[in-house]
Design brief:
Elements: H1 7-10, H2 16-20, H3 27-36, H4 39-53, H5 70-93, H6 98-119, H7 122-140, H8 145-149, H9 155-168, E1 182-188, E2 199-207, E3 211-215, E4 223-226, E5 230-234
Antiparallel strand pairs: 1-2, 1-5, 2-3, 3-4
Helix pairs in contact: 3-6, 4-7, 5-6, 7-9
C-alpha cells in the first residue's frame, strides 16, 4: 500500500520503520500515526506564511507575540523537542504496541498545538491548526459523487471553513483581502472623550460617507467618528509619518 506523496516529504527519520511497515493489520495505526506528524510541516508552513499573510514584526520569529519574553519561545521549542524525542520511543514500540504508539503520536501532536495556543501568538497558532486540519482533510478525500454528497464526510470541510471565517480571516492583511483593520492616524478638529489628543493612532475598521469606525488599543469595541470631526487621515502610524519639509 502506497501512502500519498506528501508523506514522502514530511515523515521524519525517527519514524522510518513505521513508514516502511506494510503489514495490512497495522495500516490503520500506521496512517494515523503518520497523519499526526503532519503537525511538523504545518508549523513550518505557518512560519513561512506568517510574514506574508499577517502583519509581521521582525522579532516575531518563533510563533510568539513580538512583546513576549524569551521563555515563551523556549517553551514552544521544548514541546517540539519532547515530541521529536518521543518519536524514537514510538518507533520502537510500534510493532508490539501499535495502539499505544498511535495514541502517543496523537497526544504529541495535541500537546504541540496546545503549547502553541498557550505560549504562542494566536494568529500563527490558528494558521498552524488550519494547515494541519487541511492536510488531514486531504487524506480522507475520495473520488466519486457519492462520497461528495454524503454529509458525514463534510465535517472537516465545515470545520476548516468555520476556523478560517472566525479565527483567521480577521487577522489577514487587508491588502490581501483579509479582514484585519488598517492602522491610521487621525487629525481631529476637536478632541473626543475617548482620545487623549487631537492626533490619534487607531485601527480603521470601516469607512462610510458618514464617518469612520475605528478601534483603539484600550478596547475591542469600535468607536464612530463623524467626518465633520476629522480634518485629515494618514494611512499609517505616527512612526511612519514622513518628516516635515522646511
Amino acid at each position: 500500500m502506497r501512502l500519498p506523496a506528501h508523506y514522502q516529504i514530511e515523515y521524519i527519520r525517527a519514524l522510518r520503520a513505521v513508514y516502511n511497515n506494510a503489514e495490512p493489520k497495522l495500516q490503520f495505526y500506521r496512517n494515523l500515526l503518520l497523519a499526526a506528524h503532519f503537525i511538523y510541516p504545518a508549523t513550518f508552513m505557518a512560519l513561512v506564511f506568517n510574514p506574508v499573510v499577517f502583519r509581521f514584526a521582525l522579532n516575531n520569529w518563533w510563533f510568539v507575540p513580538e512583546d513576549a519574553s524569551v521563555w515563551r519561545g523556549l517553551a514552544i521549542f521544548a514541546a517540539f523537542l519532547v515530541m521529536g524525542l518521543g518519536n524514537f520511543v514510538i518507533e520502537k514500540s510500534f510493532l508490539g504496541h501499535p495502539k499505544r504508539a498511535a495514541f502517543l503520536g496523537l497526544g504529541g501532536a495535541s500537546f504541540v498545538v496546545y503549547t502553541l495556543y498557550l505560549f504562542g501568538a494566536r494568529n500563527i497558532a490558528n494558521l498552524t491548526i488550519f494547515l494541519f486540519l487541511a492536510g488531514l482533510s486531504a487524506l480522507q478525500v475520495k473520488p466519486g459523487i457519492s462520497y461528495a454528497l454524503d454529509f458525514r464526510n463534510w465535517f472537516l470541510a465545515v470545520l476548516l471553513i468555520a476556523l478560517f471565517t472566525f479565527k483567521i480571516f480577521g487577522d489577514i492583511r487587508p491588502e490581501l483581502g483579509g479582514g484585519a483593520p488598517s492602522p491610521v492616524t487621525l487629525y481631529l478638529n476637536m478632541p473626543v472623550a475617548w482620545l487623549d489628543s487631537n492626533v490619534a493612532s487607531v485601527l480603521l475598521v470601516d469607512e462610510t460617507d458618514q464617518g469612520f469606525y475605528v478601534l483603539t488599543a484600550l478596547t475591542d469595541k469600535a468607536f464612530f467618528l463623524p467626518r465633520s470631526n476629522v480634518a485629515s487621515v494618514y494611512f499609517g502610524t505616527k512612526a511612519d509619518l514622513p518628516p516635515k519639509t522646511q
